[in-house]
UniProtKB/TrEMBL annotation:
It holds the Pfam family tRNA-synt_1c. SUPFAM superfamilies: Nucleotidylyl transferase. Its EC number is 6.1.1.-. Residues 6-245 form the Glutamyl/glutaminyl-tRNA synthetase class Ib catalytic domain. A motif ('HIGH' region) lies at residues 9-19. Its cofactor is Zn(2+). The gene is gluQRS. A motif ('KMSKS' region) lies at residues 236-240. The keyword Protein biosynthesis applies. This is Glutamyl-Q tRNA(Asp) synthetase. GO terms for cellular component: cytosol.
Amino acid sequence: MAYVGRFAPSPTGPLHAGSVLAALGSWLDARAHQGRWQVRIEDVDRPRCPPGTDKLILAQLDALGLRPDAPPSWQSQREALYEQALQRLIAAGLAYPCACTRKELAAAQSQRERHGELVYPGTCRPENGGLRGRPARAWRFRVPAGVVHWQDRRLGPQQQDVAQAVGDFVLKRADGLWAYQLAVVVDDAEQGISDVVRGEDLADNTPRQILLQKALGLPTPRHLHLPLVLAADGQKLSKQNGAAAFDSSEPLQALQAAAAGLSLQGLPPSATLPDWLHAATRAWAATIAPF
């Protein structure tokens, strides 16, 4: 299988140290495997995406020398594909409408909370009474019983019982927007992504995506989840906790900091940007776990 990788930022703010690390790691993995690298702007949650941020991110990537092998794509231009996938799941009995509000779920006796996320107890499953005459708010995926096993190239063997840990998860939200899980699965398949390289905080999404891939008859990519850049309080560095945009006038400095976070050794302390990226590609190939 030919290698096709991707970097898929959400344009809720400019790239910072953590997202530069993810971008560099995905780019290096593609280059080390003589593959192709794509950029996908994940703007499916449009209210959280300030106008112009997508263009800013693309300019930042260009300043870093991380240039895709095909024109960038935008999730907001791909919604017809998500609708087709949802209809396939509905026709197969694998998706159903849900009338529950978050307040109702929080009040449910069987509710458990996981990472701040409500674990869905199956209230609106057809066998549990369905909508009970109430209007549908969202669409959920019917999670099968059983444990999902998968292999991460850095983290090793992984597993999760999605039914117990997450429950039936949302495919289309009450506000009409598409959920991340469905959009990313459809996009990865349609774009021929063979390898997903992203931050370790997203590893928890992988079992849900594997279930959707199986339900839709789509291939499951290989996975490599990268270490995170942490803020002073030990939390993941993110736009939500005030992560500063990297200085695009000093791209090599930003890349060197990302390489340190990826534990790449033996890189030249000073070099032109192309020469540094070439050396980093060799270091990645020698350091990071192969397929």
